[in-house]
Amino acid sequence: MKNIYIIGIGLIGGSLAIDIKSKYTDAIIFGIDSNESHLDEAIDLNLIDKKATYDDLISADLVILSIPVDKAIIELPKILDCIGEHTLVIDVGSTKLPICKSVEQHKNRRNFLATHPIAGTEFSGPKAAIASLFNKKTNIICEVEKTTFKLQEKALQIFTDLGMRIRYMNPEAHDKHIAYVSHLSHISSFMLGKTVIDKEKNERDIFDMAGSGFESTVRLAKSSPAMWTPIFKQNRENVIETLDEYINNLKQFKELMQADDFEAIYNEMKNTNHIKDILNGLV
Fold first, then answer.
1. HSE toward the beta carbon, residue 84, CA cutoff 13 A
2. I need a labelling partner for 155 at 20 to 30 A (CA). Which of 39, 114, 199, 203 fits?
3. Rounded to an integer, what distance in angstroms lies between the CA atom of residue 75 and that of residue 147?
4. How far is residue 120's CA from residue 12's CA, in Å, rounded to a whole number?
5. d(Cα 91, Cα 96) in Å, to the nearest integer?
6. What pLDDT digit, counting tens, does each position of 87-141 carry?
7. What's the predicted TM-score (pTM) here?
8. Where are the alpha helices (DSSP H) in the chain?
């Protein structure tokens, strides 16, 4: 695997570039990005070796599509139009059903593998890229049976070399579950940040009084709206369903507070402590 093209040199694309370079020393990393300054920055940071265009994809061994999900469903068919017979194309988007549907009838569908590495930070752009971001992280693969077997093998070897755990899921189930464990977390963080900004007009008070609990909870509110708005739009129905349940739980908590039923509040929190056992099982 020598010629690797990464389309979108931000946190995920850049971090993949770092780890691929460390594992495959003979690899040449080509960068494609609509933001020319991102490409210049990526070269300066040694994330990529050269700039490229879609015209160069015919020589690609691997193409990684790492751009906002609304752009991905437009660009993926174009990418599949340009590749060679043995090129593997993967995407890393947070929604899977729309991307799979966008190429379900494409003549080169067998060259594409839909993936979602569950990894990231609240930062974006080439400077956000970090080494070992994907080590021991879960990578969800959808519709693996639609990818030719040899390219499946190539992809799985790459993911294994980067230290990822693999889970298979259909795109509908992926989008439903990810709404709970990822998309809702970001909405909660954004809205907590909004609530505090709306109520605490003195920014110095926020800075002085914010503890580690607030900081960790609101961390995701620093994420890119340009990335997350399309995710919420593509997964709208699942996100709304998730929000309904979340809002209902918040209302119930408020009602217990109003009723001075702190025994029930204690029991709710104690039962929810089970989440730490679930998460400890992932370590």
1. 13
2. 39
3. 19
4. 7
5. 9
6. 999 999 999 999 999 999 999 999 999 999 999 888 999 999 999 999 999 999 9
7. 0.89
8. 11-23, 36-44, 69-82, 97-102, 149-161, 171-178, 184-199, 203-209, 212-218, 225-234, 236-258, 262-272, 274-280
